[in-house]
Amino acid sequence: MKKTILLFSILLIGIAVNAQDKPAKANISAEERAKLKSMRKDLNLTEEQKTKLKEIHKERKANKEARKAMTKEQRIAANQADKAKVDAVLNDQQDAKMSEIRKVRKEAVKN
Prior knowledge:
Blueprint: H1 2-21, H2 23-43, H3 47-62, H4 64-68, H5 72-89, H6 92-110
């Protein structure tokens, strides 16, 4: 009986320690997914636009490791190029809404 309780206690401690490392990362991605879903809804994207934006996102994600090796100026230039690609997909009304979303995000980061 004591061995069972000891084994069970060790198992629970192991699960608790392992669980403490993961929630922050999982919450960030869930948070990001929620933001993206909200943005898609706010922008009222067509299926074609969604497809193009997914391609841009996949390309950016594929270059993630390469971006780490870039200088700050190179990353800024790459981000601006990605922004231009996204803006090219959006119509004027969506672009205005996207600019508003970016402005709110920038203010949130500052504070």
